[in-house]
Amino acid sequence: MSHPPIQMRRVLKASREKVFEALTDPDLIRLWMCPKDFEVILIETDPRIGGRFRLEMRAPDGGIYPATGAYEEIRAPEKLVYSWLWEPIHALAGIETRISVELTRQGAETLLVMTHFGLPTENERRGHQKGWTGGLDKLELLFQ
Length: 144
What we know:
This protein is α+β, with helices and mostly antiparallel strands and 144 residues long. The chain is built from three helices and seven strands, in the order E-H-H-E-E-E-E-E-E-H.
């Protein structure tokens, strides 16, 4: 059974190259890839086809939420596709989902379209939409 994806769009005040860098550089990922009021406490990346990443987020209550995945498609600076797998603690532990990020030039700005596939319930889609909204808000602030 196919589950509808969530999709988010942002126009960022930066070139595609700068935005793509923020999607793959661990020092930049640390600044944005987590929900509002969370912080990235660990990020390891190997941005190449088949390369892995690991991310740990700390919630305001101190809970740690680790996720891992693998890069499946890398077309700098226009597209990045990777798997996403929550580790134990999260309700989706062991369920692999997929994220696609497409970057389109719009003059001096970049349209980012992020699609998260495979979230199995409406509750998880809403929760991830809220989490990604917080993260994309942080990403947008990087380019103000």
